[in-house]
Amino acid sequence: MTPPEADVAGTRPDATTRPPAVSVCLTTLTKRADFLRAARAKRQASKGFVLQARKRAPGEGESGAIRIGYTCSKKVGNAVARNRAKRRLRAIARAVLPTDGQPGWDYVLIGRAETTASHPYLDMERDLKRALQKIHGNPT
């Protein structure tokens, strides 16, 4: 018996027409200094989160990588609420940044009290796309 994912008589589409299994790898910010540099740069608020973004200087970190950080203060809620909010922020970042983010930039997503965990997911994706457009100078 052939597994369903096996290519039977060329029925699978060409690999060039399918999206890659793994998209652009996002590097996670871990150092406090990177978060502080992003805090001094551009910011764009939306209903579900705040986006901070900065273009890295030449020679600072991986030049072509998109780096992303997530943070939620205790205002968001207890540990369970903060972790849920950060999971949602990670999910929208994985969905939006590979296509709309720019290489060589650092982004920090900050969760907001009560709204990050409860705001509709599709609205948050749309808000992140809009925030990226405004930060990069092409608002629509």
UniProtKB/TrEMBL annotation:
Record flagged with keyword ATP-binding: no
An example molecular function term from Gene Ontology annotations: 3'-tRNA processing endoribonuclease activity
EC number from the UniProt entry: 3.1.26.5
Reactions catalysed: Endonucleolytic cleavage of RNA, removing 5'-extranucleotides from tRNA precursor
Coiled coil ranges: none
GO biological process: tRNA 5'-leader removal
InterPro entries: Ribosomal_Su5_D2-typ_SF (IPR020568), Ribsml_uS5_D2-typ_fold_subgr (IPR014721), RNase_P (IPR000100), RNase_P_CS (IPR020539)
GO annotations of cellular component type: ribonuclease P complex
PROSITE patterns given in the database record: RIBONUCLEASE_P
Keywords (A to Z) from UniProt: Endonuclease, Hydrolase, Nuclease, RNA-binding, tRNA processing
Gene3D superfamilies in the cross-refs: 3.30.230.10
Subunit and interaction comment: Consists of a catalytic RNA component (M1 or rnpB) and a protein subunit.
Family label: Belongs to the RnpA family.
Functional note: RNaseP catalyzes the removal of the 5'-leader sequence from pre-tRNA to produce the mature 5'-terminus. It can also cleave other RNA substrates such as 4.5S RNA. The protein component plays an auxiliary but essential role in vivo by binding to the 5'-leader sequence and broadening the substrate specificity of the ribozyme.
Protein name: Ribonuclease P protein component
